[in-house]
Amino acid sequence: MKPSTHSTCSVIGRSLGQLTRQQGDEALLQELAAHPSDMLRCWAAYAQPSTSLQEALRYIYPSLETNTSACGRSLGLPFVSRS
Fold this sequence. Notes:
Layout: H1 5-23, H2 26-33, H3 38-47, H4 53-60, H5 70-74
């Protein structure tokens, strides 16, 4: 069975988090958190150590009320149109 996109995103993000903490390169995670790509922002959310889902998503979104991302939808958050 092929792993889901969600599980792959989680593994990549958690691995990036471990590596950036080992290397002391928090700037990389901040760049990923602000990236236009939903996938890269998902990695940044999963890279946060021991945080709740809301805390991880707040890292990549200033307001959960404006969630329009594929990452937020894959995590079960309601889709909110920005238009």
